[in-house]
């Protein structure tokens, strides 16, 4: 027996209206909220006054200059390179330094498009209908800017790194939407051609030849928009003492293997996630169907652990002098102007009569589409109390210096527990039991699972 629909009748709506105007606080809130941003009105003056961007445990030195991804979704790349540059700055005695975000962006675009086309082949071989949920999900966004940690590992291990001076930003690096529109249009067109060829009984060789032809167009589009990195380069620089140095000619892969890997070996870093949904046990490893960026590369692997463990290993890494890449949902309980991530920074019940964003558990927010990882940044400091418990953390963002403490944010430990989803630390900070979880065969989550959301 079907339930009766809850119709909004005239009498019921009239009751809503009477209840609204009966409370004069609603009228005052309406008067100001129709003129001012409701999130600004909900800010807690007391909480802002009590927030200080001061920390008692920091890494030796933070990187300069503060980076800015501008109007692109490359936070995961910026955050990774902001971590990696720190030991380079120290080792080479530099005043400031940036690795080329555009270089990895170029190769990610090329690889990501090829990965998508091969996913189309895979789903066609599985007899997935073009209008089914999986294929429709893939076609909705064939290539985006966002990414995950294991995608970074794939790019660096295959293509290496280079200084930003040797491959600077382009218009489409900083404002990627137009290039992405072009690529998405062609990729959907290419997907149709692939599926039609497979439906006609095309061989694996025929399909591979078609993808190679399609990728020549992708390479040309990306090369026109971003430029094409040189196969080798020479890095000239001055150290803090104004002494001149030169490295090269050298390939980007050699530059990473010879000069960076001894300082920061990306293969020694492990990514831990926290997914408290009842369906996903802690102490298990997960992956997401059709997620990745390099065909034949490393899968995106999620070692699921309690959030308290993620906070603990983050503090251990900071105390050991190494910054931490992490992924979170940056838009919740965020006072962007002051750079404050704090559960108490907004008082929504005072303005609206109801709370939002934290009304459900973290697991339920994931389950009901209210929460997911959206952004990657870097931890550079923590503040511990007299009981050696983490109270707050310092965050290096990649949105320029205009917001927060010259671009740095303050995150409370309670905010970390609610809205942080993954951290990357050196495996030396991880127990043997947790490391052994990586040896499990991953449980495959569907392509649309929130844990597959890409930081951008």
From TrEMBL:
Its main location: cytoplasm. CDD domains: Peptidase_C1B. Keywords: Cytoplasm, Hydrolase, Protease, Thiol protease. Its EC number is 3.4.22.40. GO terms for biological process: homocysteine catabolic process; proteolysis; response to toxic substance. It is found in: Cytoplasm. InterPro entries: Papain-like_cys_pep_sf (IPR038765), Pept_cys_AS (IPR000169), Peptidase_C1B (IPR004134). The keyword Transmembrane helix does not apply. Pfam families: Peptidase_C1_2. One of its GO terms (cellular component) is cytoplasm. The active site is at residues 75, 375, 397. It is an enzyme of class 3 (hydrolase). It catalyses: Inactivates bleomycin B2 (a cytotoxic glycometallopeptide) by hydrolysis of a carboxyamide bond of beta-aminoalanine, but also shows general aminopeptidase activity. The specificity varies somewhat with source, but amino acid arylamides of Met, Leu and Ala are preferred. GO terms for molecular function: cysteine-type aminopeptidase activity; cysteine-type endopeptidase activity. Belongs to the peptidase C1 family. This is Bleomycin hydrolase. The lineage of its organism: Eukaryota, Metazoa, Ecdysozoa, Arthropoda, Hexapoda.
């Amino acid at each position: 027996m079907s339930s009766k629909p809850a119709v909004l009748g005239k009498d019921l709506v009239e009751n809503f209206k009477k209840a609204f105007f009966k409370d004069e606080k609603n009228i005052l809130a309406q008067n100001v909220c129709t003129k001012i941003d409701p999130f600004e009105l909900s800010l807690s003056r007391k909480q802002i006054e009590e927030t200080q961007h001061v920390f008692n445990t920091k890494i030796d030195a933070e990187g300069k200059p503060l980076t800015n991804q501008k109007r692109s979704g490359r936070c995961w790349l910026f955050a990774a390179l902001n971590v990696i540059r720190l030991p380079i700055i120290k080792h080479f005695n530099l005043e400031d330094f940036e690795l080329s975000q555009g270089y990895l962006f170029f190769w990610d675009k090329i690889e990501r498009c090829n990965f998508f086309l091969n996913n189309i082949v895979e789903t066609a071989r599985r007899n997935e209908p073009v209008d089914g949920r999986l294929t429709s999900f893939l076609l909705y966004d064939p290539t985006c800017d966002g990414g995950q940690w294991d995608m970074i590992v794939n790019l660096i291990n295959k293509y290496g790194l280079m200084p930003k001076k040797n491959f600077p930003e382009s218009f489409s690096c900083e404002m990627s939407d137009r290039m992405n529109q072009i690529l998405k249009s062609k990729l959907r067109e290419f997907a149709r051609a692939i599926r039609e060829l497979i439906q006609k009984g095309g061989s694996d060789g025929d399909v591979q030849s078609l993808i190679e032809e399609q990728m020549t167009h992708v390479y040309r589009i990306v090369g026109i928009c971003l430029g094409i990195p040189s196969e080798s380069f020479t890095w000239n620089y001055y150290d803090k003492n104004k002494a001149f140095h030169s490295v090269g000619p050298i390939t980007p892969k050699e530059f990473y293997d010879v000069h960076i890997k001894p300082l920061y070996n990306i293969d020694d870093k492990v990514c831990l996630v926290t997914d408290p949904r009842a369906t996903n046990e802690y102490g298990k490893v997960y992956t997401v169907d059709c997620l990745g960026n390099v065909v034949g590369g490393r899968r995106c692997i999620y070692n699921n652990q309690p959030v308290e463990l993620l906070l603990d290993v983050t503090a251990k890494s900071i105390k050991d002098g190494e910054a931490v890449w992490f992924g979170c949902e940056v838009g919740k309980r965020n006072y962007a102007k002051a750079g404050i991530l704090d559960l108490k920074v907004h008082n929504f019940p005072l303005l609206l009569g109801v709370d939002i964003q934290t009304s459900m558990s973290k697991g339920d927010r994931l389950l009901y589409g209210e929460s997911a990882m959206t952004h990657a940044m870097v931890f550079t400091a923590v503040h511990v109390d007299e009981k050696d418990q983490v109270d707050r953390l310092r965050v290096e963002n990649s949105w320029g210096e205009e917001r927060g403490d010259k671009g740095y944010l303050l995150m409370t430990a309670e905010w970390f527990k609610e809205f942080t989803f993954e951290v990357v630390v050196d495996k030396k900070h991880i127990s043997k039991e947790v490391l052994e979880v990586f040896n499990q065969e991953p449980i495959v989550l569907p392509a649309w699972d929130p844990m597959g959301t890409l930081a951008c």
